[in-house]
Specification:
mainly beta, 1 helix, 94 residues, 5 strands, five-stranded antiparallel sheet, globular, single chain
Length: 94
């Protein structure tokens, strides 16, 4: 594997595979974003998604929402900016 940690930023306009819907923080949305961001990188194709969760870091503030998902490769955190960017960070196990 080429890196231990990597961040990829996508714009919501790149997420047309979600059926034209806005990014909604569902498991399917988060899985699709992680796959879009990382399947074509040195991390490789992502499979076996598990331990999914979404939370607001500051309760009641939707802009502080983050997602977390584990895969066989490592774990990913997902956040969104107010400028319609989705930020996906990968961290390798060990």
């Amino acid at each position: 594997m080429a890196f231990d940690t990597k961040t990829i930023v996508l714009h919501q306009n790149e997420l047309d595979f979600l059926g034209g819907n806005e990014f909604g923080w569902s498991f399917a949305d988060v899985e699709a974003v992680v796959k879009k961001a990382f399947d074509q990188t040195a991390v490789g194709e992502q499979t076996n998604f598990r331990a999914f969760g979404v939370s607001e870091i500051v309760a009641g503030n939707s802009y502080s929402k983050v997602g977390f998902v584990e895969t066989d490769s490592g774990y990913f955190t997902i956040s969104a900016s107010m400028l319609e960017h989705i930020i996906v960070t990968f961290a390798r196990w060990d």
